[in-house]
Design a protein that fits this description.
Distance between the termini: 14 Å
Order of helices and strands: EHEHEHEHEHEHEEHHEEEH
CATH superfamily of the largest domain: NAD(P)-binding Rossmann-like Domain
CATH architecture of the largest domain: 3-Layer(aba) Sandwich
CATH class of the largest domain: Alpha Beta
CATH topology of the largest domain: Rossmann fold
Strand order of the largest sheet: 3-2-1-4-5-6
Organism: Niabella ginsengisoli
Protein name: TrkA family potassium uptake protein
InterPro entries: NAD(P)-bd_dom_sf (IPR036291), RCK_C (IPR006037), RCK_C_sf (IPR036721), RCK_N (IPR003148), Trk_Ktr_HKT_K-transport (IPR050721)
Shape: globular
Number of helices: 9
Number of domains: 2
Radius of gyration: 19 Å
Largest sheet: 6 strands, parallel
């Protein structure tokens, strides 16, 4: 996996360091040379450049990059401009940082794939989310063990927990499943809501669009999600 992280502030730099430590190739961009020099030994590659300049950005290895994260937080204008530029260049997956509700609406209008709220979410959590395939959310219990929510892989749809042999084949434990159910709001309008299905048993059947909540060692979770 290859990542480009735009903005080496506290969140962007921390995320870039953690992904680099996981063995992934990371290009960290910032227009402040002091920050670029500060992290050049901790991140795979660091480049001093203006991420709102189309000419310089188009020279980056965008086709080979799996995820671009716009982590600029102190300058909303630069954040929006950089996000729009990378979106226009059709990167594979675009994630951008929002600092308030209005900023988030603008980013959604641009069409980002996901939005980061660093004030609520840690770089550690996002590093795990980016490293593991189809992970919806994660909670680290210690440096080695985590609970994660993962979209049920299509090949497991219609099968039971017993059928996929999570414990024997991957050494991870299924805790529960989350399923979207249709409910009505106070005005009688239907909408989809996530419902926890209770403690998972060997006979729990996995349905399409279910979210599977599993526990295990980080290395085993990585093996299961990236299979």
């Amino acid at each position: 996996m290859k990542y480009i992280i735009v903005g080496l502030g506290s969140f962007g730099a921390s995320l870039a360091e953690k992904l680099t430590a996981q063995g992934y190739e990371v290009i960290g961009l910032d227009n402040n040379m002091n920050k670029v020099d500060l992290f050049k030994e901790k991140i795979s590659h660091t480049i001093c450049m203006d991420a709102t300049d189309e000419y310089t950005v188009s020279g980056l290895p965008l086709k080979e990059t799996d995820v671009v994260i716009i982590a600029i937080g102190e300058n909303q204008g630069a954040n929006v401009m950089a996000t729009a530029l990378f979106k226009n260049l059709q990167v594979k997956r675009l994630i951008s940082r929002a600092v308030d509700a209005l900023h988030e609406k603008v980013l959604m209008a641009i069409g980002v794939d996901e939005i980061v709220h660093p004030e609520e979410e840690t770089a550690e959590r996002w590093a795990k989310k980016l490293c593991l395939t189809d992970v919806v959310d994660s909670f680290e219990l210690s440096g080695d063990f985590s609970v994660i929510e993962i979209k049920v892989p299509q090949k497991y749809t219609g099968k039971t927990i017993r059928d996929i042999q999570l414990r024997r084949r991957y050494n991870v434990l299924a805790l529960t499943t989350i399923r979207k159910s249709e409910v009505k709001n106070v005005f009688g309008k239907p909408y989809k809501e996530n419902k926890v299905q209770g403690v998972a048993s060997p006979d729990t059947v996995l349905e399409e669009n279910d979210i599977l909540v599993i526990y295990g060692a980080n290395k085993d979770l990585r093996n299961f999600t990236n299979q």
